[in-house]
Amino acid sequence: MRDYGEAGALIDTPGMKLLVAQALRWQPPLYEGKVILFRAERNLRGYPTPRGTLGWDRCCRDLEVRDLQCNHAEILVEPQVQRIASAIDSLLGFGTPS
After folding, report:
1. How many Cβ atoms from other residues are within 10 Å of residue 42's Cβ?
2. Whole-number Cα distances in Å, 33 to 42, 46, 60, 63
3. Which residue in 70, 64, 35 sits closest to 49, CA to CA?
4. Is the overall model pTM greater than 0.70, yes or no?
5. Which of 14, 81, 85, 97 reaches 20 to 30 Å from 69, CA-CA?
6. Are 83 and 68 in contact (CB under 8 A)?
7. d(C-alpha 17, C-alpha 13), whole Å
8. CA distance 3 to 84
9. Are 36 and 8 in contact (CB under 8 A)?
10. Bridge partners (DSSP) listed for residue 48
């Protein structure tokens, strides 16, 4: 039987087990466009996030990793939200007018 760690309590029905098994077998297609991975430097418990691409390089040819000085949940709050929004604006050509 597969160990789902802390999520094990949520995977308690045959339907959920089937969905999880399907998700674990799914392989994303290779994406040819530019991808930017905004990665938190720490996980929710405060431990460092593993270096590298976290597996994204298996499905993206043009991948750039940008580290944010926060934990995973803090990506969704200021000041990280503004940093991500500014990076996206710049990438799309919507930089600050001069």
Report:
1. 16
2. 27, 32, 7, 9
3. 70
4. no
5. 97
6. yes
7. 6
8. 35
9. no
10. 42
Strands (E), 1-98: 31-42, 60-71
Asked if 30 and 61 touch (Cβ cutoff 8 Å), the reply is yes
Instruction: Give the DSSP letter of residue 38.
Output: E
Residue 24: both structure tokens together: 């674990």
Q: What is the pLDDT of residues 5-59, one digit of tens each?
A: 766 777 778 888 888 889 889 888 999 999 999 999 998 888 998 888 988 999 9
In single-letter form, the type of residue at position 40 comes to A
Structure token digits, residue 84: 């991500």
CA angle 63, 57, 11 (to 5 degrees): 120
Type and span of the H or E element at 20: helix 14-25
Q: Which two tokens stand for residue 66?
A: 């940008």
Joined tokens for residue 46: 């405060």
Radius of gyration in angstroms for the set of CA atoms belonging to the chain, rounded to a whole number: 17
